[in-house]
Design goal:
This protein has 325 residues and is an alpha/beta fold. It has 2 domains: 152 residues, Medium-chain alcohol dehydrogenases, catalytic domain (Quinone Oxidoreductase, Chain A, domain 1), CATH 3.90.180; 124 residues, Rossmann fold (3-Layer(aba) Sandwich). 28% of the residues lie in helices and 26% in strands. Helix 9 links the parallel strand 14 and strand 15. The protein is globular and about 60 Å long. The two termini are 14 Å apart. The model has no long low-confidence stretch (mean pLDDT 96). GO terms for molecular function: mRNA 3'-UTR AU-rich region binding; NADPH binding; quinone reductase (NADPH) activity.
Length: 325
Amino acid sequence: MVHAIRVHETGGPDAMRWEQIDVGEPGPGEVRIRQTAVGLNFIDVYFRTGLYPAPNGTPFSPGNEGAGVVQTIGEGVTHLKPGDRVAYAGPFGAYAQERIVPADKLVILPDAIDDKTAAGMMLKGMTAQFLLRQTFQVGPQTTLLFHAAAGGVGLIAGQWAAHLGATVIGTAGSDEKIELAKAHGYRHMINYRTENFAERVKEITGGKGCDVVYDSVGKDTFPGSLDCLKPRGLWVCFGQSSGPITDFNLALLAQKGSLYATRPTLFTYIATREALEHTAGELFDVVEKGIVRIEVNQEYRLADAVQAHQDLEGRKTTGTTVLIP
């Protein structure tokens, strides 16, 4: 028997329990992996609280990314073998010492990328990839605003966008986080607690605004994010850490300059094996080349997931956090 975090009834961090589970053996197209590290992400909070419904109801184990070693393989699995180091983002239920995963959702890790780095970057790093390389084609002519610049996705995106030649503007809520973001590619930083970020963006851009705004905050940054955009600019709302946006009026997009808006998710962008390999491959490439540094700033025991969630929701974490089984 192994242990996992289980949620029997959605709620606060205390809803998570450390329990024994029976993992079983992999079926056709599946593998059993021993996890060496698990990534912590705000989407885990959404599932724990019930904001996002768990795919198979309760009880469930949260978590959407991890890394580990293949233990056994099921019938029909040909691209993996026992002993392979693998990582994933997407298959729900990562908060466990061992688990069953569909083989087509796993990618083999390059030797140069260690397990903690991999576990902490798959969801956040591939999110940065699709935001900068697919949702909007960021390049030297791009001016962008990225909210929560000192968060896990933000620190990766800042480095990557700067490498692509963009003018990168970010927001954060403390001097410490501002300095951290500046060390990760952000040319301009705005303290949203002491400054009006929309007015500061207009000052920074000479009144022109941004081509694209990346917003994972939600309620607290809306509709201010729209006021940061050029006419026909793109608002990318990919999260809601401060709460959901309700009663969104499409007419706002017209009033504020014929704007575009999208609500993308990583799982749509890696829905096929080809898309997963492409997205992960670009991430591995920039990390191996040192273009993007993945810094694991916090580690917790998986058994201490309650404390990890309390710190995450209390905005006490920066960058990447991993849970160690």
